[in-house]
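This follows on from our talk about sequence and fold. Can you supply me with one protein entry, sequence and fold together? Could you add the entry underneath, on a fresh line?
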Amino acid sequence: MSETFFASLPANIHTKGLGPLDAKARMGDIASQGWNILQEQVSLPVAVLSEEKIQHNLAWMQEFIDRYKVKLAPHGKTTMSPELFRMQTDAGAWGITLATAAQIDAAFAFGVRNVLMANQLVGKGNMAIIANLMRQDADFKFCCIVDSADNVDALGHYFAERGQTLRILLEFGIVGGRTGIRNVQQEQAVLAAVARWPQSLSLVGVELYEGVLNEEAPIRTFLQHVVARTLTLAEAGIFKEPAVMLSGAGSAWYDVVAEEFSKMGTHLDAAGHYALDVVLRPGCYLTHDVGAYHRASDRIKQNNPVAREMNFSLLPALQVWAYVQSLPEPGRAILGLGKRDTSSDAGFPVVSGHYRPQSALNHAYAAVVPAPEEWKIFAMMDQHAFMSIPEGADIKIGDMLSFDISHPCLTFDKWRQLLLINEQYDVTGAVSTWF
């Protein structure tokens, strides 16, 4: 869909993080309001995305993917933003990964047609959503994962009754992990179930999620096991399409997955009977963070030869801005920011910038200055954050603070719209979310 289409979407004027808008305002109108974050022309707290850093991250990941000669289907659950999906596919992504039928329905409504559901499709209500989308558009390219005979039989029966064929991937997992086949007996049971439904199920590849492990050696062992099973199944003629999909990679270990999967080359056999279609699924690269994914990025830059050769890395592009709301006692500041505004599951937000707006009592700072390292959030409630500060700190009620976050997924879902900004903090547009 075109930029004009996204610009024509109605703006949600009754949500947080906006300035005054006409009741009939569209998303495209936000760019022309002339708002600036530092001039207090939008309501705080506000979530903002740096356009420059977003473009940097898009280009970085696509170059990394291209160098490994694989495909990118970023996980859309990170943002659930159709405008950002469009940026990702425009930058070269093959498609979008999603986790639920409802997410897929939303993405489809905004033009996404290549979808990998990195999850099991369970329940008639969810199956009905996918069946309806398949009926609406013959070009809708969809597949989901299976790891049990019961789920396979349910899918086979449902789609057979509707005269449709569902593309599926065999998922492998590890003991103690999340979903996925654990052993040969389970694999055989799933494959036997698939064979019962040739009219409605088409096995087209293999999938895994390595992110349940947190050390490189066992991750490589797991990946190598799945590669070996893929080769064996391909040689047995199990897959129904000549391009066998092999998919993995969350946002922390995509470099290791790329290395191991790319060792297979482009064909699974010398005669070229089966081509290999590797699809990686990192999603958090788009905004990056200052927590878990920052640490992963440091490891990747140090250990991965492609990343070292590229000689630059991802940048944190998502921030939340909030006011200092109260200074009730020495050593403590209360901020107008809480669990309703930003993630805290992977670490509290990290204060990065400090700005003092002009008022009758205060002289404005000329620019945003780095916040002192001693200023740290130590607790959060629904709408408040508690920040420790040294006694005598240069901080006043009404000061504006910017926060970097860890785990962008659980920040995006707290906002219906996020503002795009340039390096001068001018608002240049907005993106919507559809959680």
In short: The mean pLDDT is 94.
